[in-house]
Amino acid sequence: MVIGAGGLGQIVLRALSAETTITAADKLEIAKSTGSDEGLLSGDKAVTHIKDITRGQDAELVLDMVGVNPTLQMAAHVPRTRPSDDCWYPRLIAAR
To answer: Computed over its alpha carbons, how large is the radius of gyration of the chain?
Structure first.
């Protein structure tokens, strides 16, 4: 899963060769045109929709290309392996 379809998000989407790519962004058309299989608006509804798409297994990989608290919060709720205090999201942990 890629969060953000700005410059970095587009580069990541083009580089990924995953089976299914889900992008949560405000630029849904850009996300779809750069290779995303699913485009979702960021937020709580995106988390629910991701859980539906993955049949409750969550995302195998989450890349937050935005890095602000709302996207970090969303990213923390969708990976198969939950982040611990010593990895992944130093800015999210600092905000706790």
So the answer is: 12
